[in-house]
């Protein structure tokens, strides 16, 4: 994750290698220079009970790797399978591009980029589920 820049709002919290860090009263910018640091903005975190759709479940799985709760080497194949399953549903070019980016990120052990790519699918998934016949 070398070169990651976090821009934090006042009082925003971020998880860095298992430690919760809270920003002060003003906006700030942090440069993360340590490779392979596990970083998650808590405002972007998906709670377990909210991982109730296919994309949210895969995002949550990526999040568990970022928080250090799951070993990325042990979960690599499972993540690739989940991404393959999503590719069976999201067939438009933009979604395919996001899934390809997420897949490449997993293969390169860049789980932050994987989560970022997957989050672009959340609005599409919401629209698909909203028009689904009941």
Automatic annotation (TrEMBL):
Domain of life: Bacteria
Organism: Tritonibacter litoralis
GO biological process: bacterial-type flagellum organization; mRNA catabolic process; negative regulation of bacterial-type flagellum assembly
Name of this protein: Flagellar biosynthesis repressor FlbT
One Pfam family, short name: FlbT
Presence of the UniProt keyword DNA damage in the record: no
InterPro entries: Flagellum_FlbT
Single Gene Ontology MF annotation: mRNA 5'-UTR binding
Coiled coil spans: none
Keywords: Bacterial flagellum biogenesis, Cell projection, Cilium, Flagellum, Repressor, RNA-binding
Keyword Repressor included in the entry's annotation: yes
């Amino acid at each position: 994750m070398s070169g990651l820049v976090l821009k934090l709002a006042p009082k925003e919290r971020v998880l860095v290698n298992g430690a919760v860090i809270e920003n002060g009263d003003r906006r700030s910018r942090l440069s993360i220079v340590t490779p392979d640091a596990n970083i998650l903005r808590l405002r972007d975190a998906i709670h377990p009970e909210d991982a109730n759709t296919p994309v949210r479940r895969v995002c949550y799985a990526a999040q568990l790797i970022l928080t250090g709760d799951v070993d990325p080497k042990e979960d690599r194949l499972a993540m690739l399978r989940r991404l393959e399953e999503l590719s069976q549903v999201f067939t438009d070019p933009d979604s395919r591009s996001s899934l390809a980016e997420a897949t490449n990120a997993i293969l390169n052990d860049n789980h932050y980029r994987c989560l970022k790519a997957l989050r672009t699918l959340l609005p599409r998934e919401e629209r698909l589920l909203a028009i689904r016949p009941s």
